[in-house]
Structures
1.
Amino acid sequence: MAIRFDGRVAIVTGSGVGLGRSHALGLAARGAKVVINDLGVSTDGQGQSSDAALSVVEEIRAVGGEAIAHGADVSNEEQVADMVAKTMAEWGRIDILVNNAGILRDKTFSKITLDDFRKVVDVHLMGSANCCHAVWPIMREQKYGRIVLTSSASGLYGNFGQSNYGAAKAAMMGLMNVLHLEGSRDDIRVNTLAPTAATRMTENLMPPEALDLLAPETITPGLLYLVSEDGPSRTILCAGAGCFAQTKVYETEGILLEGADNTPEAVAAKFDQVGASEGQRELTDAFAQTRKYARKAADAMGLKLPWGES
Ligand SMILES: NC(=O)c1ccc[n+]([C@@H]2O[C@H](COP(=O)([O-])OP(=O)(O)OC[C@H]3O[C@@H](n4cnc5c(N)ncnc54)[C@H](O)[C@@H]3O)[C@@H](O)[C@H]2O)c1
């Protein structure tokens, strides 16, 4: 079955250029009405312009699609509220939110100022939280919503010189996990995309031969699946150059140290076993971990706990 978005309304933040533009064009090509949000800033968040957003709106309208532009700064709660209000006034619903807007202010941790740290966290983390918070009551009321947060290999695995960006991008996983739990009863599905693409943000870091391979358009099909009606929830989809993979967080089975045996020396002696991958599994909420540990300790003592398997 073809994936279509007819009758759906989508907001894509930072969609004047790069990945956001590609996602917005992909959604519009499959029938969505799209809000092209872009503040029109440089890669490090300076300046402001509506040119890029307006040109994507034109591109969509030129082929018969529906789009409007909005220049909200995603880190500004009032401007985001205005974008959501205008979208509701225009189209009466919001089905899809793609949190994509982003900037970089790279510096090693010894050189970074806290202003540059805060600015990056404000745009990526607070920007995503602002947009999710503004559409949340609408999606709950509709009993339908698809949200994507944009992370990065920098957040999942680390990248030298990106403590601010890495921290903000890792936070996407935490936000996703909780919004997934809180949204599922109203069919709000929340996923994270971790792209790697040649855009103005990254093209200087890549060999010229790789630029075409890593075009944003190679990633958008994955994004479209994530926000589709039958899309998943709580997944981290990694994508680039037509490759798709998932990042998963597993917890090892671990060990139990009881009573007087629970010493730092025993932890050190068994540290390989603590990290052994045999028996590792995904835990799907925080209390799954509490139950796991309490059950292990209780089992060793022959106690029964009123908790089922998790
Ligand atoms: N390009 C990559 O390889 C890569 C890798 C991992 C993650 N990402 C993430 O993907 C997203 C898109 O990146 P890109 O490479 O297309 O970057 P880009 O610089 O090409 O586009 C980012 C867009 O966001 C807009 N923007 C920035 N701050 C904004 C704000 N406060 N409010 C509204 N719009 C704002 C910019 O004006 C720009 O149009 C970002 O979140 C980025 O961190 C990109």
2.
Amino acid sequence: MSKQILVISTSPRKGGNSDMLAEELIRGAREAGNDVEKVTLYDKTIGFCKGCLICQSTQRCVIHDDADTIAQKMLNADVLVFATPIYYYGMSGQMKTMLDRANPLYSADYRFRDIYLLTAAAEEDEHTPDGAVTGLQGWIDCFEKARLAGTVFAGGVTSVGEIQGHPALKQAYEMGKQM
Ligand SMILES: Cc1cc2nc3c(=O)[nH]c(=O)nc-3n(C[C@H](O)[C@H](O)[C@H](O)COP(=O)(O)O)c2cc1C
């Protein structure tokens, strides 16, 4: 059955390594007949969560910027995919800010179930993305009906385009195909 998949590419670098992983996942997911929408954060205006918690009674953020719009897209997607560079052994600040700004969904009738994470980093050690995985898992734990369904990590890539030919690209494509 065709799924509505929302891919949120959070790197501030246009066409960066994690974004290439997102593109490969999208290629696989579309080939498998899914309806995929991609959102990039580098070109969006996204303010920090104010912590007012008004969203818990209104299911809407008091800040009317791009994060508010993206959170509404998240609400209606079956599958969420986050792509992020590893910054100081964690997710990008852009991704963390977006997760905080998705707080209106906490008390809403969200549709998403499966959530995937794509990461890219300069280091090759397989544990490099652990902080990002733990951070996203902490968010997912607050959404009882959702689960972390899969991760792909591209290690040893620093500059834009360095990911070319990396085996993680195929893994991302295959992950997209089996969604
Ligand atoms: C602020 C900053 C922090 C970074 N921290 C790490 C890190 O902790 N570990 C690592 O392996 N690479 C680190 N990197 C390198 C990036 O993860 C790497 O360049 C990655 O390919 C960027 O992905 P992107 O092209 O999708 O933005 C850092 C880069 C920046 C700009």
